Amino acid sequence: MQKENVNATSSQAVMSAAVRYLQDTARLSNFRTLDHDVHELIEVLLMTDFVEEKELRNKVVLLLRHAKYFTQAFEPFSDQEIKNSFADYLQVE
What we know:
Low-confidence stretches: none
Number of helices: 4
């Protein structure tokens, strides 16, 4: 991933990449429980010395937020609705 792209990129290309990422992620077996799984893992890590590392702690907080936002975004939809939407979007491009 780049912070700056020297070539012009269309919004459509960016959205297509995002949809492909989401489609791949939604195929993971724990996609519905991602936030819970991440929280469980972090609880175990908090019992170690890593808590002293401020930079690592900040990354963990961001990871927790990403997992929470991801699962919340798809919560209202069934697995089949999500799969169909991804397929429909990618066919249109």
